[in-house]
Amino acid sequence: MIEARQLTKRYGDKTAVDGVDFTVRPGAVTGFLGPNGAGKSTTMRMIIGLDAPTAGSVTVSGRRYAQHSAPLQEVGALLEARSIHPGRSAFDHLMALAYTHGISRGRVDEVIELTGLQSVARKRAGAFSLGMGQRLGIAAALLGDPQTVMLDEPVNGLDPEGVLWIRQLLTDLAAAGRTVFVSSHLMSEMALVADHLIIVGRGRVLADTTVQELVRSAGGDTVVVASADPAELRRALAVRASRSPAGPDPSS
Amino acid sequence: MSTATESRPTPAAPARPADPARRVTGRRVLRSEWAKLWSLRSTWITLALGLLFLLAFGTIAALRYKSMSASGQQMDPDFADATAYTLALFGVPFALIALGVLGVLTTSGEYSTGMIRSTLAAVPRRLPVLWSKAAVYGVIAFLVGAVGAVGVFLISSGVLSGTAKAMSISDDEVVRGLLGAGLYLGLVGVIGVALGALLRSTAGGISALVGAFLLVPGLMSLLPRSWRTDITPYLPSNAGESIFALQPPTGALSAGAGLLVLLGWTVLALGGAGYRLKRSDA
Ligand SMILES: Nc1ncnc2c1ncn2[C@@H]1O[C@H](COP(=O)(O)OP(=O)(O)OP(=O)(O)O)[C@@H](O)[C@H]1O
Ligand SMILES: [Mg+2]
After folding, report:
1. I need a labelling partner for A173 at 20 to 30 A (CA). Which of B87, B117, B153, B224 fits?
2. Where do the H-state alpha helices sit in B73-126?
3. Within a domain: B7
4. Residue A141 and residue A30 share a domain
5. Rounded-to-integer distance, Cα B233 and Cα B255, Å
6. How far is the CA of A208 from the CAs of A31, A38, A211, A236, in angstroms?
7. CA–CA distance, B86 with B247 (Å, rounded to integer)
8. Which residue segment(s) compose the domain that A197 sits in?
9. C-alpha distance across the termini of chain A, in Å
């Protein structure tokens, strides 16, 4: 369970995240949807304490991430930016992380197998393709068998088979009662995996809803909405919603 | 068909309880930093270079001295007041660069590659990472320095045996001095770790290290003489050299005082690094 309360991050005079409130619950896949620059990655970095909030707070299972005694067991995160030393092999990278928590070598082998990295585990990570690097990041996220799995744009660089594999993984994790939080800027991708959606734009939460609800309010279950620009989509939806129940349009 | 019931996890089943044996401890962070260091090729290469500099330059200095004295040539002034001990440790400033640079890399490399994000996600309290890196690398740099210093002394005292400068490892203070040279290099390694973490840049960290140990002593000649004699002994390089000097030059600190002063610089650098690590975004 992730709870953000009035979470705010400013970089100089640029406000990346602006008083955001949301809760990500266990047992479901929650999509974190928004256009480029909406503040998704910044929010995720704050969740695991890499960036400190300017104001507000965010907790994981009721505590700040850094206050957990076994953080990798609480949240496993795949970040957007590269977080691997290219000179180290995949195995050594995972092992170094495992040592901090007393996680066994057996578990390292397990996540290597789970992510299909067996054949390259002893190669330098710097020589990995984009997709292999992404798999290694996912292996690291799963290492601690975490209660919450948080992935920032996980399908980046994955081939179609990899995309299917990720969808299945997310669904299985949620079915096993884990909290799953995945960001994307593609509504089409989110519609396929997410149960719940938190839509952000310019650092603010625009909608916090279920996928079904969103699709229904967008005009019934015969329409599939796909948008590269969810902020614009939301604006269009809001205009439409305010017109339909014969009420006056408040914005004009 | 009869086995179909167990094909899928029960939806919303409670997740398994957290394994209480898995948690972050100081020892485990040390273990992790140890593994990180040895899993990079640059570690092996740079440590080997540091050791080579110590062994090779000291040996060359001793051979050069021997050939000059054997041919009865006029001694270079640099060599005139040399001893077997100072000749053997001719390579210390070069080893200092190699070991200091590797110290910088252990921290700056985490930032330049992005590894720091994985590291701090695993150890979000942060400071244990810095202490562990400093401890692990400090001990390794000390060992390489001490082994190299003792090794090159044995080689060059062999080369110089029978000359006027002959010395033995059992002579007064020699072992203490050689271990002191190792200690100096170990602390330089720790200062490198701190500078890399403080500046978060390999180029910046190396520049600061080279500046502090090689350039600032040269700049001292720009100061008025009275200041110079007051300040110079306390510079990191001068304090460090006092730790292993057998006959400290006039005005230099004693070995103990030199060690304390260099420890002071180390604590200062680590403190700054810790402050930045704790306070600013990764
Ligand atoms: N370290 C930083 N310093 C300054 N500005 C930053 C920093 N990190 C992010 N920003 C700014 O904050 C805003 C939000 O960025 P963020 O990366 O969180 O967006 P995002 O939703 O993840 O976008 P994308 O879909 O492109 O990944 C952007 O305008 C970005 O330029
Ligand atoms: Mg992003």
Report:
1. B117
2. 77-80, 84-88, 92-113, 115-122
3. no
4. yes
5. 12
6. 10, 15, 10, 17
7. 10
8. 2-220
9. 40
**ipTM field:** 0.88
A83 contacts on B by Cβ (under 8 Å)? 114-118, 121
Residue B16 domain flag: no
pLDDT by 10s per residue, chain B, length 282: 344 443 444 344 444 556 778 899 999 999 999 999 999 999 999 999 999 999 999 999 999 888 887 777 666 776 777 888 999 999 999 999 999 999 999 999 999 999 999 999 999 999 999 999 999 999 999 999 999 999 999 999 999 888 878 888 888 889 999 999 999 999 999 999 999 999 999 999 999 999 999 998 888 888 888 888 888 999 999 999 999 998 878 888 999 999 999 999 999 999 999 999 999 998
A177 contacts in B (CB within 8 Å)?
A: 12-15
Task: For residue B275, give the nearest of B188, B198, B190 by alpha carbon.
Answer: B198
Q: Which of A9, A14, A155 to mutate to test the pocket of ligand 1 (most atoms within 8 A of CB)?
A: A14
Partner-chain contact B23 A77, CB within 8 Å = no
The domain tally of chain B equals: 1
Q: Are residues A20 and A38 in the same domain?
A: yes
- pTM, 2 dp: 0.88
Backbone angles phi, psi at B105, to 5 degrees: -60, -35
By residue range, what is the domain housing residue B43? 26-279
Contact at CB, A99 and B42, closer than 8 angstroms: no
Contacts of residue B43 in chain A, CB cutoff 8 Å?
Answer: none
Å from A81 to nearest chain B CA? 7
Tell me, yes or no, whether A18 and A92 share the same domain: yes
Residue B40: Cβ within 10 Å count: 19
